[in-house]
């Protein structure tokens, strides 16, 4: 069961319009474009990426409600869960949750990302699809305070058991 | 180990009791605690409690330049430091499109594979120690000492190496290292044969490990377990092959795979991997290209905005650095995906219903390094 990049792109493209997600542009949004230059073509929610430059093949942006659907697609295609982590985009008042997937039988690597508002960082848990997500989500909750709805246990994991802070938030200071 | 009845168990308070393993226990090889809910001699739930040596490397990464963070990478999995060096220099080289001289890549492969053997030797001795065999440690540390001496000669340190640089290496290897490494390869082969005859074929060891702690390929995929754990479950997944990096495609080596999925399979994968690493080292020494060991690197490192990943096959499995840059001299975000973390996460499911000594054999066969889990 080794999927091709094209097959996967098609499966994801079918998924995306359901939630009508606005593709977020994490990097170019920070740098204000010069007024004379023509705006770059807005990247779609499903992009194939040059592996040698980025280290992954497919970059999928979904809405926070679609992360489980995306995980199910990848699960059915034989992918394994690599890691879950967050990025605090404090300037845009958003948190990004990044899901990395690897495939044990093929070189294909997929990144799924979803953004949540910084003041209300919540999205569903993946632990029903990938039990390995349990620990990664717990760690992400530790570091960023992102709440994974339906997660069995979000108590501090790597941090001390009485920790009520989230050190990887950009406004955290010790 | 202290059995205690005052910690309420979650399953059946009438028939089970909680056995606290660690955080200071020889079988956990570091400060790992496992809360074991026992039904007599059988494990009903084993819940790892981690974070005792959490150092927040990821936050440190956001507070220093790319070059200043490099020494940190050798202190995450301290037995596999060069592989972690490799992933971090790799991610910067990928983002800045730095070309690394071929000689440097060859030396990276030679030293990384030496590091892999030394790491497996530590696992081997510690694992057998868990199972009650003390003597193998004395042999394995004798061999490991030779590797540490060789690597100390070129890197300057014995364990927490910081030898690779963005664009190459901090210094070239000398003739002494080449001679010493050749001698080590020649010496190590009969030693591996001796290990097989003395330990691997030993009936007591086989009875302790065969059929114990089965982990299926499906479980590895669901939990993201990699390295010898997934290869011991019959899947030939090795980052050196599936996402080739450095000059690994230029060498002829096999990916050892054992389909049984038990603790013995994971044991055999690592033993066979040492022989394969020797093969790679021998080939790399044979065709070591001349030339510089440092490429052209900008004086100030500022990665183009965006995120970059670089994965390597560390001694315990897939190590991934995912980094986000906002075009500043310090990283915006550094994520370290470590193999031991994912490999341990399946322990609760895999150890269910096992007898306690077997559950400890399974724990040892996962080859955990606690700083690698806690980061």
How does this structure look, described?
The complex is a heterodimer of chains A (174) and B (375). Chain A is α/β, with parallel strands linked by helices and 174 residues long. Helices cover 24% and strands 24% of the residues of chain A. In chain A, the strands form two sheets. A five-stranded mixed β-sheet of chain A has the order 1-2-5-4-3. Chain A has a two-stranded parallel sheet with strand order 6-7. Chain B has 375 residues and is of the alpha+beta class. In chain B, strands 1-2-3-4 form a four-stranded antiparallel β-sheet. In chain B, strands 7-8-9 form a three-stranded antiparallel β-sheet. In chain B, helix 4 runs antiparallel to helix 11 (263-286). Chain B is globular. The model of chain B has no long low-confidence stretch (mean pLDDT 89). The A-B interface holds A 26-28, 30-31, 51-56, 78-83, 85, 87-88, 98, 100, 102, 104-107, 109, 111, 130-132, 134-135, 143, 156-160, 167-168 and B 50-51, 54, 56, 58-59, 62, 91, 94, 97, 217, 220-226, 230, 235, 237, 242-243, 305-311, 318, 320, 322, 324, 326-327, 332-333, 335, 337, 341-342, 345-346, 349, 374-375.
Q: Element order, helices and strands of chain A?
A: HEHEHEEEEHE
User: Strand portion of chain B, in percent?
Assistant: 5-15%
Got a strand count of chain B? 9
The first-to-last residue Cα distance of chain A is: 48 Å
Q: What is the gyration radius of chain A calculated from CA atoms?
A: 17 Å
Note the gap between the termini of chain B.
26 Å
- Average pLDDT of chain A works out at 81
The major pleated sheet of chain A works out as: 5 strands, mixed
Tell me, rounded to a whole number, the average pLDDT of chain B: 89
Tally the helices of chain B. Answer: 15
Instruction: Tell me the number of strands of chain A.
Output: 7
């Amino acid at each position: 069961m080794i999927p091709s990049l094209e097959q996967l792109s098609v499966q994801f493209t079918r998924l995306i319009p359901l939630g009508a997600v606005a593709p977020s542009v994490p990097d170019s949004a920070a740098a204000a474009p010069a007024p004379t230059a023509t705006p770059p073509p807005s990247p779609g929610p499903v992009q194939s990426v040059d592996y040698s430059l980025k280290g992954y093949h497919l970059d999928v942006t979904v809405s926070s409600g679609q992360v489980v659907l995306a995980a199910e697609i990848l699960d059915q295609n034989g992918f394994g869960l690599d890691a879950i982590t967050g990025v605090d985009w404090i300037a845009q008042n958003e948190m990004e949750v990044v899901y990395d997937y690897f495939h044990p039988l093929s070189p294909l690597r997929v990144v799924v990302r979803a953004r949540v508002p910084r003041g209300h960082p919540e999205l569903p848990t993946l632990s029903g699809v990938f039990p390995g997500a349990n620990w990664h989500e717990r760690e992400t909750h530790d570091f960023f305070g992102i709440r994974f709805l339906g997660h069995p246990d979000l108590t501090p994991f790597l941090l001390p058991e009485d920790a009520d802070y989230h050190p990887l938030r950009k406004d955290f200071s010790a | 180990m202290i059995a205690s009845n005052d910690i309420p168990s979650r399953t059946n308070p009438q028939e089970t009791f909680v056995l606290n393993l660690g955080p200071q226990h020889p079988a956990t090889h570091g400060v790992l605690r496992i809360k074991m809910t026992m039904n007599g001699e059988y494990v009903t739930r084993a819940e790892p409690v981690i974070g005792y040596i959490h150092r927040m490397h990821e936050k440190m990464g956001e507070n220093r330049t790319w070059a200043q963070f490099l020494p940190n990478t050798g202190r995450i999995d301290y037995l596999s430091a060069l592989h972690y060096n490799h992933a971090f220099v790799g991610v910067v080289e990928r983002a800045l499109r730095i070309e690394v001289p071929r000689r440097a890549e060859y030396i990276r492969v030679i030293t990384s594979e030496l590091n892999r053997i030394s790491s497996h030797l530590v696992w081997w001795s510690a694992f057998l120690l868990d199972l009650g065999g003390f003597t193998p440690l004395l042999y394995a540390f004798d061999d490991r000492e030779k590797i540490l001496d060789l690597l100390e000669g070129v890197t300057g340190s014995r364990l927490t190496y910081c030898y690779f640089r963005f664009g190459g290496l901090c210094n070239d290897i000398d003739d002494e290292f080449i001679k010493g490494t050749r001698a080590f390869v020649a010496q190590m082969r009969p030693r591996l044969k001796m290990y097989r005859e003395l330990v691997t074929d030993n009936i007591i060891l086989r009875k302790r490990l065969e059929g114990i702690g089965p982990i299926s390929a499906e479980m590895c995929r669901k939990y993201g377990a990699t390295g010898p754990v997934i290869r011991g479950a019959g899947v030939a997944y090795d980052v050196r092959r599936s996402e080739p990096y450095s000059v690994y495609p230029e060498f002829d080596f096999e990916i050892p795979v054992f389909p049984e999925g038990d603790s013995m399979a994971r044991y055999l994968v690592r033993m066979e991997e040492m022989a394969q690493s020797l093969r790679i080292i021998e080939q790399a020494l044979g065709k070591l290209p001349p030339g510089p060991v440092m490429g052209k690197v900008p004086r100030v490192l500022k990665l183009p905005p965006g995120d970059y990943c670089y994965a390597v096959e560390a001694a315990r499995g897939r190590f991934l650095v995912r980094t986000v840059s906002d075009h500043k001299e310090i990283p915006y975000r550094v994520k370290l995906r470590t193999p031991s973390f994912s490999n341990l996460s399946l322990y609760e499911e895999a150890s269910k219903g096992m007898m306690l000594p077997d559950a400890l054999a399974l724990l040892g066969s996962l080859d955990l390094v606690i700083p690698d889990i806690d980061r």
